[in-house]
User: Fold this.
Amino acid sequence: MWLGPILPVLAALIAGVVAWRHQTRRLGRRTYYEPRGWDTTEEEFRRGAIGHRRRRRLGITVLSALAGSVVATAALQLVQLTEAIRGG
Assistant:
């Protein structure tokens, strides 16, 4: 079965792309409404907030890709187990 080795990779890719797009939409959304300290300029605050969101976006993308791969692998194992039980 050629789908077995490819399915976890495809699931990881799809989950990563979906997470990346979702987090990219949220990248600059709340910058103006977040509280900032009195000793920080607006430009420094925005740069820090956007930098934090970029790092968060990367982390969520990697975790989503790993989760997608794990779920696809578990689904393949479940399919193989049910085929072995049925004798097919």
Helices lie at 3-25, 42-86.
